[in-house]
Amino acid sequence: MNDLLSTALAVAADGLPVLPLRRGKVPFGNCPACTRNRCGGRPNMKTPGPCTCPQPCHGWAAATTDPDVIASPAWAREWRDAAAVAYHPGGAGLTVVDLDTESAVTWARTNLPPTRTVPSTRGEHWIYQGAMRSVNGVREGVDIKSSMSYARWLGHGTGTLTPLPHAVRDLPPRAPAPVRPAHVVAASVPGGAGVCRHRTPAFLDRGIAMAEQRITEASSGIHAAVYSTFLAVLSAHGRCGCLTGAHVARLFTAAQAKGESPRHCTDAWTNARNRLGI
Predict the structure, then answer these.
(1) Closest by CA position to 100, among listed 223, 186, 7, 187
(2) Which range among 17-31, 39-53, 86-100, 249-263 has the greatest average pLDDT?
(3) How far is it, in rounded angstroms, from Cα 271 to Cα 265?
(4) How many CB atoms lie within 10 A of CB 140?
(5) Helices (H), 56-200
(6) Distances (CA, A) of 173 to 138, 221, 260
(7) For 84-114, how does the pLDDT look when each residue is reduced to its tens digit (9 = 90+)?
């Protein structure tokens, strides 16, 4: 059995709804039956509840504790291609305070009550008993992952779960980070000599405007929404050389207004380019 599938089954047995993540720590795209929400379920993932599709579609809403679904043939391809296991904290009545920097960990140790902690790639996950809305960027290096969101499974951690404190519930989203267009432009614009399908500049501008709106209206799973939007823009406009630094800066600005850091934006853009081979 695939190691990630084995892990997912064990985590689900502990009561945590799980789903596979692909490279870039994002969920798999919707299956053909659910593309563009033809299935009629979970539009924009704005309402709580599981997805009824047998495939791991619809991001966090795909998470389940049902071992027959997790190990089903419908999920087999995703587990073969998966890079990590994730879970839906809110679905288990939990909240994860994702501390992404050393300074964020230091802040938590000073300001938050002790609870179960799990080491992460760059910091720690602090896990509390109780669910709340998910918010990215409540302060520098701190995201809240709970209802309608997902967190990577990084192990059981240490310490005892404690109730979700008001110190976490009351954390406000911080002001958007300042955008540095030079940084955005330098790492981003693909060249290309493909066939241009943009009959007028307005066609491309309308596509960028729609992408900005998609990011701005995302109410949860911001990382996934930013990545999928970047992927869609590059798929439509990335091979003919028409994208400019100004277009990319508009997308990064929209993403950073939702709490994404410049580094996360650059990573998502790079991962989308790599997936498309641009």
Answers:
(1) 223
(2) 86-100
(3) 10
(4) 13
(5) 67-70, 73-81, 102-111, 166-169, 181-186
(6) 4, 15, 12
(7) 999 999 999 999 999 999 999 999 999 999 9
